[in-house]
Amino acid sequence: MRPDVLKCLVLFLSLCVCPPGLDLFEGDIMEVSNVNYVFLPFFSPCKIVDMVNAHCDSVCCPGMNAKALILQAFEHFRLKTCIDFRPRQSEEYYMSIRRNPGCSSYVSRFVKNGQVVSIGNRCDRLGIIEHEIMHCLGLHHEQSRYDRDDHITIIWDNIKDGLQRNFYKISQGESTTFNAPYDYLSVMHYGKNYFSKNSENTIVTKLPQYQDKIGQRLEMSPIDVYKLNRLYNCNGSISFMEHCDFTNVDVCGMSFCKKGLAEGWKRISDAAGGPYTDHTTLGKTGGYFMHASTASGQEGDSAWLETKRMSPTRKCHVQCLQFYYYHSGSQSDQLNIWIREFRDKMDSRGNLRLMDQITGEQNGNFHMVPLNAAKPFQVVFEVHKGNEKSSGGFSIDDINLSESECPHNIWKINNFERLLTNTDYNSYLQSPVMYSTDGYAYQVITALRETYFGVYFRLVSGDNDSTLEWPCTWRQANIIMLDQNPHIQQQMSKQITVTTDPSFSAFDNPYLVGKRIRRHGESLHVNSAYGVRSFLSLEQIRSRDFLKGGTAVFLLTMTGKILGLILIKFTIEYIL
C-alpha cells in the first residue's frame, strides 16, 4: 500500500498544555488564594466529589472524543480501585469536567457546587484524563514528594524563567508517601524535559534506566493504585472479580470433575504436545497452568473445571472473561465455556448456559468471552474429547474476570518485533476486516518504522453498507495494544481513539469515496486512514509485556453512535 493512502490525523499527545495567560501551580494544578492546604496531595480524600454536566454544549463540555474517554477512565478506576462514580443528586461537593482551556484540576475535595476539572484541547488522552482526575481525588505530582531528591535531580538552569515553582517539593509535614517506593512510572510524574527552556532535561533520574520512562501517560501505575486505595482506606475494587495464574496449589478455589478422561484437569508446568511452559512467566521462573489431556479416553469424555461462586454487584449484568489457552489436541476436541447460575444460596445445581466454544486447528491465543450473569454464578471450563486421535489437549492460564464490557475484536500479530525491525521502512500490516456493533466495516493498520510504529483506523466496504447511515457519524474506534501482564489490574496498556466526524469525507461510504484495492483475491473499497504516526517505540514495547512470546495483541472496538451521550454530574464514592 502506498504511504499516501494513509493520511495521518495528528492527535496531540502533549499533556498539561496551558495556554498563555493561565497561571497554574505545577502546570496543571489550580490554586485557591489564601488557603494553604490546597497543596495537601496525599491525604485529603473526596468522600463525595464528582462529575460532569447536566446540560452540555460546545462551550462547557469536552469534545465528543473526550466524552467517551472520560467514561473509559471511570471504568479504569472501577477496575483497579475502590472508587466509583455515580450520578450526582444533591451533594454539595462534586466534580464538574469542562472543556476549559488546557488540562487542569484542584488537588483534593475543595470547591462546593461543582469542582472543575478541565479537559480542554489536546487533553483527550486516557492517561491525561486519569492524571487530572487523580489530582481531584487527592494525589499530587510524584516529583513533588518531599523525598524526591533521593531519586531525581532537578536541573534548575534548564527551567523556563518564572516556572520554577512547578518543581517545588511538598513538605513532609503537609503530605505522606504511604511508604510507597518512589514511582518513576507514575502517571503523576513529569517527563524528563517538562518546562524546559532549551529542550534539555529538567529532571534527571538517579536510576538511569528510568530517564526516558518518566512522564508516561499510558494509564495509572500499580503504585498509583496502591496510593489511591490507601488514601481512601480501602483495598477493594468496583468491577474486578477474579484473577488466577495457578501459581498456588489451591488453584484459586476451583473444583474438578471428570467423565471418562483418565486424568481430567491437572495443574502442571509443561504438557505433552505443548505448551512447554506456563503463559504467566514463559518459563522464566517456573510457573504452572491447567491442562486436560484428550490423548486417552473415548469420544464424548469430558473434564470440568469450575470456579468458586461469584456474585455480580453492578446493575449492568455484563462481565468479561479473559484467559490464554493452548490447543494441542485434535480438530474435533472442544473447549466449552459455560456459566452456571444459581437462584439462591440453597441452589446447589444451578442452570448451565454455554457462552463460547473453541475447537478446530491447534493454536494458542489470548481469548475473551462476554458473559451476562445476573445471579450468583460459576465459570465452567469443559474439555470435551472429539472423535479423532489426539496427542495433546487443552491448556488454560492467566484467567481474569471483571464486571465490564469486553472489547469486540482481537487482532494478534506474531513475531511483531522481528517484523518491526526487519521489514522495509513504512511497511504496513492490515488487520482482517472487523465490524462495529451496528454493522460498519473497518480495518486497523500498523505502519512499521524500524524503531517505532504508527497505528491507523479506516472504514472499508462491508456487507451492510447499503442499509447503513452515511456518513458514519460520531462513532468511536478504540484501539488498544494490550500490556499482557497476567493480572488485569497490573496492566498499563496503550490506546488511541478515533471519533468519526461527519465533516470528514473519510467517514463516508467507502463505495463512494474510497479507493478500490484487491485483498486476498477479493475487491475492497478503503477510505483514508486516521491515527498516530508514532504509537509506541521499540524501547517502549520492550519495557512492559506488550509482546508475550513475540506476539502483540490489539483489542479493537467500534462503538455505536455517541451523539446522544450527555454527561451528567457524578458523585465519587468508595467502598470500604
Automatic annotation (TrEMBL):
<keyword id="KW-0479">Metal-binding</keyword>
<keyword id="KW-0812">Transmembrane</keyword>
<dbReference type="GO" id="GO:0008270">
    <property type="term" value="F:zinc ion binding"/>
</dbReference>
<dbReference type="InterPro" id="IPR034035">
    <property type="entry name" value="Astacin-like_dom"/>
</dbReference>
<dbReference type="InterPro" id="IPR013320">
    <property type="entry name" value="ConA-like_dom_sf"/>
</dbReference>
<feature type="domain" description="Peptidase M12A">
    <location>
        <begin position="33"/>
        <end position="235"/>
    </location>
</feature>
<keyword id="KW-0732">Signal</keyword>
<dbReference type="GO" id="GO:0016020">
    <property type="term" value="C:membrane"/>
</dbReference>
<dbReference type="GO" id="GO:0006508">
    <property type="term" value="P:proteolysis"/>
</dbReference>
<feature type="binding site">
    <location>
        <position position="135"/>
    </location>
    <ligand>
        <name>Zn(2+)</name>
    </ligand>
</feature>
<feature type="binding site">
    <location>
        <position position="131"/>
    </location>
    <ligand>
        <name>Zn(2+)</name>
    </ligand>
</feature>
<feature type="transmembrane region" description="Helical">
    <location>
        <begin position="552"/>
        <end position="572"/>
    </location>
</feature>
<keyword id="KW-0645">Protease</keyword>
<keyword id="KW-0862">Zinc</keyword>
<dbReference type="InterPro" id="IPR002083">
    <property type="entry name" value="MATH/TRAF_dom"/>
</dbReference>
<keyword id="KW-0482">Metalloprotease</keyword>
<feature type="domain" description="MAM">
    <location>
        <begin position="242"/>
        <end position="408"/>
    </location>
</feature>
<dbReference type="GO" id="GO:0004222">
    <property type="term" value="F:metalloendopeptidase activity"/>
</dbReference>
<keyword id="KW-1133">Transmembrane helix</keyword>
<dbReference type="InterPro" id="IPR000998">
    <property type="entry name" value="MAM_dom"/>
</dbReference>
<dbReference type="Pfam" id="PF22486">
    <property type="entry name" value="MATH_2"/>
</dbReference>
<dbReference type="Pfam" id="PF00629">
    <property type="entry name" value="MAM"/>
</dbReference>
<dbReference type="InterPro" id="IPR001506">
    <property type="entry name" value="Peptidase_M12A"/>
</dbReference>
<feature type="active site">
    <location>
        <position position="132"/>
    </location>
</feature>
<feature type="binding site">
    <location>
        <position position="141"/>
    </location>
    <ligand>
        <name>Zn(2+)</name>
    </ligand>
</feature>
<dbReference type="InterPro" id="IPR006026">
    <property type="entry name" value="Peptidase_Metallo"/>
</dbReference>
<dbReference type="InterPro" id="IPR008974">
    <property type="entry name" value="TRAF-like"/>
</dbReference>
<feature type="signal peptide">
    <location>
        <begin position="1"/>
        <end position="24"/>
    </location>
</feature>
<protein>
    <recommendedName>
        <fullName>Metalloendopeptidase</fullName>
        <ecNumber>3.4.24.-</ecNumber>
    </recommendedName>
</protein>
<keyword id="KW-0472">Membrane</keyword>
<dbReference type="InterPro" id="IPR024079">
    <property type="entry name" value="MetalloPept_cat_dom_sf"/>
</dbReference>
<keyword id="KW-0378">Hydrolase</keyword>
<dbReference type="Pfam" id="PF01400">
    <property type="entry name" value="Astacin"/>
</dbReference>
